[in-house]
Amino acid sequence: IAGITQAPTSQILAAGRRMTLRCTQDMRHNAMYWYRQDLGLGLRLIHYSNTAGTTGKGEVPDGYSVSRANTDDFPLTLASAVPSQTSVYFCASSDGAGRGVDTQYFGPGTRLTVL
Amino acid sequence: DAKTTQPNSMESNEEEPVHLPCNHSTISGTDYIHWYRQLPSQGPEYVIHGLTSNVNNRMASLAIAEDRKSSTLILHRATLRDAAVYYCILRGLTGNQFYFGTGTSLTVIP
Fold first, then answer.
1. Is A61's Cβ below 8 Å from some Cβ in B?
2. DSSP of A30-85
3. What are the pLDDT digits (tens) for B72-106?
4. Which of B74, B52, B76, B56 is nearest to B64 (CA)?
């Protein structure tokens, strides 16, 4: 079982370009999440999806969009990248069995640099 | 979800126990206490969680104060592979956010 895979592993992107970070899980989890982690800081939630077909905004959603067409995939799109979006991006999923006891499983991350 | 307070960093000698504290004075009665850790260049991984009673698993133990305003993650014998940032997080019955904060960076000294 692979768990959560993310692609690409790393990317250097020119400002103004469009970029989609891919995330796939094989655990059939209902809920999926995108976080960003800036140097020396904790993770901040960008967007989430409780189930296929639904999405919601997290703590720092501006400049990002997501879609959830099926259970397994949860892509994150930067429509027009800016240098402040340079960060490490983590995708996560949880079975959503009960919010208090939800355990999140994280992917290996995508390191994005916007120049 | 309520917020937590942790020391920025701690050190431990290898093969000695480590007690990582977390304060959560605004915890509500339905908040679960979760601990995650993040090894260098990896995504966070689940360690343990609890509600009121102390909990043990193969990775660690979680000691919860009687008033639930603080908790302690206990690594019984620290190894070099335990060097990581440890996050204490509260999870309520509603909402989707894990507030990771900055965690405690644990250094294990050989």
1. no
2. SEEEEEEE-TTS-EEEEEEESSTT--EE-SS-TTEEE--SSSSB--EEESS--GGG
3. 999 999 999 999 999 999 887 766 667 788 899 99
4. B52
Contact B2, B24 (CB under 8 A): yes
pLDDT tens string B13-53: 999 999 999 999 988 888 899 999 999 989 999 999 999 99
Helix (H) or strand (E) holding B35: strand B32-38
Tell if the CB–CB gap between B93 and A99 is shorter than 8 Å: yes
Tell me if residue A99 falls in helix, strand or coil.
Answer: helix
Rg value, chain A, Cα = 13
- Chain B closest CA to A16's CA: distance in Å? 27
Residue range A43-100, pLDDT digits in tens: 999 999 989 999 999 989 999 999 999 999 999 999 999 999 999 999 999 987 656 7
The secondary structure of residue B80, as a DSSP letter, is G
* Paired strand residues for A19: A78
